[in-house]
Design a protein that fits this description.
Peptidase_M1_aminopeptidases, seven-stranded mixed sheet, M1 family metallopeptidase, Neutral Protease, domain 2, single chain, alpha+beta, disordered N terminus, signal
Length: 813
């Protein structure tokens, strides 16, 4: 989950081009047939030695490895970072590299960045009338403009040198930097280089970013959340080579795994949380704090390492002295940290996978503003996340998992997450929170810690395919949230995506992240709903869970693409799902299956003594014509009643009277049957079952299984699932024959009775149609008033307030 919330690579074709490509491969030129079950082979990349047709890493799969050694200093007063770093780059690719690309994410805040220069104005509609209504520009927008104008932002980089101390040529391109190597880097070789860098930290509340500082006016302190804070190697991949697309804000990062050795110098009274394991606890923590950490390893509830009272005392201090915190992290793809004297700190050990597995320390860092909400739920939510996610993937692979409160609504990095919910300070000094804030905290901690699995370990490319981390993670956080407390409205059910599915303002899931029109529903909710449906409706839990876990374990510490996910889910489940990926991920179709008609059929036995009696009953059951009914009511005599002496054969026999001619024809028919045919017919006549034909329309275009609830005359109900393949020959209209026992006549049929398929119109799912429940509200009609002009003569007599008054404006007497 990002702050409160595909240009494709070489292996994926843009959706706009895919129809052209498919047309050139197989072209339908007759009729109106559309194959919703076409295989994805024409769209997915051709399997190779790097990525197999099964969706797993190929025998020659490779990825680069990058190690960082960083010394960084936080200047609290100037709100500036200065640092130096040495980078070791290992070229595991089969290619010789003449240059390296690095990401300079802080450059997004420069006034001449692509992101800033391409930003659009989103105010209200502009007007050119002689007396125009003013368009609106929020104070938040003005605040952002002013902050960026007042501060020099972006990286300052110097002293870029190779391991021999020779200068390296550097070219900065927006949020990217190319370093030209003095010697080409051959396959299997490594190179080392160093640089100094610095930047002014942005005020997160002013700018709206993924990191920055938050200032607290009342106590004069700051919380610093530092991410995207150092020049990092862009990924070099088998499917795209350098992933050097500029950072525009929505598209996040794909990075290389490596080891980090980071020394962080901060004011001596600060508490630091960071990616990795603290390597010098004896230098930066008191003996009491170290003892508390030891105690926290085996407790039912979190133990405070820094208590609230201690944090409040820290708030009052301030110091010119510094401490250096030393963190080491192995096999991670990024590094982030947080620092503040406001932090209280709690921790709890989590033993996973048996006592022989390493203990994981779940820890939370938060100021007094977090209150009981954070004390009760943050660290517990971390542990719950690991318990649930590990079932679906693998044991949590790192020594710590952390949740830090600050100005960022929600962001994730290896071993550390930034989460925003707070309590509200009331007049009596207490702190309270709403159910929405409780849900937000538990949900955001689950979501962000979940990201440590996806994409911090299963290393998908977020710059291109946002859904691969956000969608998969939103699906799993929906599982974890409902396993926490299903009565909390998590907003993760298929029904919760209906409004988006039928909206016009959307793009396919397989759209590059910076081009997505509505990131939340597109990257989070829709793919999560799709996976929920895949698990609960289409595959079932056993097949889905096996395949999903296979995907997670195959691509642990590796870089999967969408094709790898699609292929693994199919290969491991044993179910062809190309129709599902095509509909949910490559189109903007929605689900709207209408049950149009239900026909009740009776089997013709061919026996005239049976069939003609049935026809007589059908005729008798027809409504009496209004003319005949009224004549009877008026006691009008019929001619045949007044002339009873005139009769003939047809007064004794109706048109349904059976003759021997029909009986002879029937006997001849029976003699012509094969023995097995006679046996089948005799059984069908004896059983006299009910035959129903259900007629469906696919109004939304997205083919899906048809979930039925059949209600019988005796009050019993039966659930049936018609597979999506029923639409394979006609994706618009289908009919389905359903046979029930003689004593089980149908009285009603409902499609998707539990709202499990994101069907956008449940009212056409019932047969017979139901009376639609709704609401009506009584209101008092207000008299329309013409716009009142300013009464300056009256308003000028209003008393001017000093600013201390709390009552409303007092009218002049």
């Amino acid at each position: 989950m990002k702050k409160a919330v595909v240009t494709f690579g070489a292996i994926f074709l843009p959706l706009a081009l895919s129809s052209t490509v498919m047309a050139s491969a197989v072209e339908q030129t007759k009729g109106s047939y559309v194959d919703k079950f076409r295989q994805l082979d024409e769209v997915l990349p051709t399997p190779n030695v790097y990525r197999s047709a099964a969706g797993e890493p190929g025998e020659k799969y490779w990825q680069q490895h990058v190690n960082y050694d960083i010394d960084v200093k936080l200047d609290e007063k100037a709100r500036r970072l200065t640092a130096s770093q040495t980078i070791e780059y290992k070229n595991n690719s089969p290619h010789t590299l003449k240059y390296l690309w690095l990401q300079l994410d802080q450059n997004i805040f420069k006034s001449d960045s692509i992101a800033e220069r391409s930003a659009t104005f989103n105010g209200s509609a502009l007007q050119g009338d002689p007396q125009p209504k003013a368009t609106k520009l929020s104070l938040s927008q003005l605040r952002r403009q002013q902050f960026m104008s007042d501060n020099e932002l972006g990286f300052t980089i110097a002293n870029v040198k190779d391991d021999n101390g020779k200068e390296l040529k550097v070219t900065v391109v927006d949020t990217l930097m190319r370093i030209d190597l003095n010697e080409p880097l051959n396959p299997g070789k490594d190179t080392e280089f160093s640089m100094d860098f610095a930047f002014n930290i942005v005020e997160e509340d002013a700018v709206g970013a993924r990191s920055g500082y938050e200032h607290f006016e009342k106590d004069g302190n700051d919380i610093f959340l530092l991410a995207q804070w150092f020049p990092r190697l862009a990924a070099y991949t088998d499917y795209e080579a350098w992933t050097n697309k500029a950072f525009l804000g929505s598209g996040e990062f794909t990075l290389e795994f490596g080891d980090y050795d980071v020394e962080i110098t901060v004011p001596a009274d600060h508490i630091v949380s960071a990616t990795g394991k603290l390597d010098n606890a004896s230098s930066v923590l008191t003996r009491t704090q170290r003892n508390r950490l030891e105690q926290a390893k085996n407790t039912k509830r979190p133990v405070f390492i820094v208590t609230e009272d201690e944090a409040l005392e820290n708030e009052k201090e301030g110091t010119e002295k510094t401490k250096t915190w030393h963190f080491k992290a192995e096999n991670v793809r990024d590094f982030a940290w947080a620092s503040s004297r406001k932090f209280m700190w709690d921790a709890k050990g989590y033993q996973q996978g048996g006592n022989d597995q390493p203990l994981v320390m779940a820890m939370s860092f938060f100021p007094k503003e977090g209150g009981d909400l954070w004390k009760k739920y943050s660290t517990e939510a971390i542990v719950h996340t690991m318990e649930v996610y590990s079932r679906f993937s693998f044991d949590y692979p790192y020594p710590v998992a952390q949740s830090v409160n600050g100005p960022v609504g929600g962001m994730e990095y290896p071993m550390i997450t930034f989460n925003g919910p707070r309590t509200e300070l009331q007049d009596d000094g207490s702190r309270t929170y709403s159910q929405a804030e409780k849900r937000f905290l538990i949900g955001v901690v689950i979501h962000e810690v979940g990201h440590i699995y996806f994409p911090m370990v299963v290393n998908s490319d977020e710059r291109q395919w946002t859904w691969m981390d956000e969608g998969l993670n939103s699906f799993l956080d929906g599982v974890a949230g409902r396993e926490w407390d299903p009565t909390i409205p998590w907003g993760v059910e298929p029904r919760d995506v209906v409004a988006y599915m039928k909206s016009e303002n959307q793009v396919p899931i397989m759209t590059q992240s910076d081009s997505v029109l509505r990131l939340g529903p597109n990257a989070y909710t829709k793919p999560a709903a799709a996976l929920n449906i895949l698990r609960e409706v289409i595959l079932g839990r056993e097949l889905f869970d096996f395949a999903f876990k296979e995907y997670a374990q195959r691509w642990k510490y590796k870089r999967p693409t969408p094709a790898d996910f699609f292929r693994t889910m199919e290969e491991a489940s044993g179910v062809d799902l190309d129709w599902f990926w095509r509909g949910w991920f490559y189109s903007t179709d929605h689900v709207d299956i209408s049950l149009d008609k239900v026909y009740q059929l009776r089997l013709d036995t061919k026996n005239p003594d049976i069939d003609f009696n049935r026809l007589r009953d059908i005729e008798a059951a027809k409504p009496m014509p209004l003319f005949v009914e009224r004549n009877k009511a008026e006691a009008k005599k019929l001619w045949i009643e007044e002339n009873t002496d005139v009769t003939d054969f047809y007064d004794e026999n109706d048109r349904f009277t059976v003759t021997n001619k029909e009986r002879n024809s029937y006997n001849k028919f029976l003699k012509g049957l094969e023995p097995w045919e006679r046996k089948v017919l005799d059984r069908a006549v004896a059983e006299d079952k009910n035959y129903y034909v259900l007629e469906f329309s696919n109004l939304g275009g997205l083919v899906m299984p048809i979930l039925l609830e059949l209600t019988y005359e005796d009050g019993t109900k039966e659930a049936r699932m018609i597979p999506a393949e029923i639409w394979r020959r006609n994706h618009k209209h289908v009919q389905k024959l359903i046979i029930t026992d003689k004593n089980k006549p149908l009285v009603s049929v409902t499609v998707d009775p539990r709202w499990e398929t994101a069907d956008v119109d449940v009212e056409n799912n019932n047969y017979p149609r139901r009376i639609i429940p709704s609401r009506i509200e009584v209101y008092k009609k207000e008299q329309s008033k013409a716009k009142v002009s300013r009464d300056i003569m009256h308003d000028i007599k209003t008393e001017l307030k000093t600013g201390d008054e709390k009552d409303s404006d007092k009218e002049p007497e």
